[in-house]
Amino acid sequence: MIELHEDIRRGIAFLEAVPAGARDRELPVLFVLHSFGVSKELVAYFGLMGAQRGMRVILPEAPGHGARAISDPAERALRFWDILCDYVDELAILREGLLPRIGGGGVALAGASMGAFAALAATARHDFVHATAAYMGTAYFRDAARTIFPPLRRWRPELAGEHDAKLSRIVDYDPSARLDALSAKPLYLWHGGRDDVVPLADCLRLASDVTSRGAADLRVEVDPEGGHRVTDAAARNGLNFLACALGRGQFLDT
Questions:
Q1: Whole-number Å distance between alpha carbons of 97 and 88
Q2: Rounded CA gap, 202 and 216, in Å?
Q3: Distance CA 117, CA 91 (A)
Q4: Which three-class secondary structure state does DSSP give residue 3?
Q5: In terms of Cα–Cα distance, which of 159, 103, 105 is closest to 127?
Q6: What are the structural domains, with CATH classification, of the chain?
Q7: Which GO molecular function annotations are given, in alphabetical order (predicted)?
Q8: Which of 176, 41, 49, 32 has the alpha carbon at shortest distance from 115?
Q9: For each of the chain's 254 residues, which pLDDT tens digit applies?
Q10: 22, 185, 181, 176: which is closest to 106 by C-alpha?
Q11: Would you call 253 exposed, middle or buried from its count of C-beta atoms within 10 A (0-12, 13-18, 19+)?
């Protein structure tokens, strides 16, 4: 049995999934970060599957989404990279606000698409992150911003200076500038071979870069037929990887 709770801390709404009767017990902690334009409820299956593996799963809502939604889709798209950076910052704020409940130990992260971008950035920035599962993500923000929601609506080489100026904030969040920190932590990477949003090449590039830096624990899975969507097998494999990284062994679904 699983319990699912709605809560809010420091203005950040989130769902919390735990094994039944275990909300007040000490449990390994997993934060799940959702993708752009959807809701925390849409990734609640990660909460169910994580709680089945003995974890406390926190699913925070991203800035510009849910109760804080930016109503104009075009405006929200232009703010994609700021939303992403704010998501990384809010993860630390929420974790601090939840310390009395979750304790001060290491936590794991899982994220898909924008959530994977944020998970990789947070893993590189925050010491409290112990292990991460990134689905369909990239660690190369400044390169990705030319094709994924460019701040000028469309990438144009003649406006490269203006483009880069609008992205000045992401320089400090770009995981590719902190690859040594990423390499030091257990990392599960999953990508679909037919992803038409985030190129598979970004996943393979990251795997190569962290391997060359002596990756502590790296697992890479590619589904040749997969698109920009987390498969059931990928979700299960990533959660098993994180459960093991948190010292909980490989839990079976119940």
A1: 15
A2: 20
A3: 13
A4: strand
A5: 105
A6: 2-245 (3.40.50.1820)
A7: serine-type peptidase activity
A8: 32
A9: 899 999 999 999 999 999 999 898 889 999 999 999 898 998 999 999 999 999 999 999 999 998 888 888 888 888 899 999 999 999 999 999 999 888 888 799 999 999 999 999 999 999 999 999 999 999 999 888 888 887 656 757 766 666 676 787 888 999 999 999 999 999 999 999 999 999 999 999 999 999 999 998 999 999 999 999 999 999 999 999 999 998 854 443 33
A10: 185
A11: exposed
Question: What residue type is 199 in one-letter code?
Answer: P
Pairing of strands 218-223, 187-192: parallel
**Which residue, 225, 208, 242, is CA-closest to 134?**
242
Spatial contact of 129 and 107, defined as CB atoms under 8 Å apart: yes
Residue 100: in which H helix or E strand, if any? Answer: helix 99-102
Residue for token digits 């017990």? 25
Tell me, rounded to whole angstroms, the distance of Cα 180 from its chain centroid. Answer: 18
Residue 152 and residue 139: Cα distance in Å, rounded?
21
Query: Taking the CA of residue 151 as centre, how many other CA atoms within 13 Å lie in the half-sphere pointing to its CB?
Result: 21
Measure the CA dihedral 240/124/140/60, to 10°: 60
Q: Look at residues 150, 125, 120 and name the one whose alpha carbon lies nearest to residue 136.
A: 120
Cβ–Cβ < 8 Å for 109, 245: no
Helices 114-125 and 80-97: crossing angle in degrees, nearest 10, is 50
